[in-house]
Write a structure and sequence with these properties.
flat; 28% helix; metal-binding; iron; monooxygenase activity; two-stranded antiparallel ribbon; 78 residues; monooxygenase
Length: 78
């Protein structure tokens, strides 16, 4: 009896770039969080954590943040 290749889920190969993509997103997000001081606008009281459903989850009421560079300006120059 001949067995079809790829019929067993354990034999299938996953995308080689998926792990690298996850690592890059984590690295970029960590760099953004580390490089700037983040503050809420002064008129924001309590943050509403409700979500709206769609293709991706989004906040029902968007949160606006003030971004202040934390590192010296020479770090941000190209």
């Amino acid at each position: 009896m001949e067995r079809k290749q790829g019929s067993n889920p354990e034999e299938r190969r996953i995308c080689a770039g998926s792990r690298m993509g996850i690592l890059m997103v984590e690295y970029i997000l960590g760099t953004l969080i580390y490089s700037f001081d983040w503050k809420l606008q002064t008129n924001v009281g309590k943050i509403n954590m409700d979500e709206t459903f769609g293709l991706a989850l989004q906040k029902k009421i968007p949160v606006s943040a003030i971004v202040i560079p934390r590192l010296p300006p020479c770090v941000y120059a190209p």
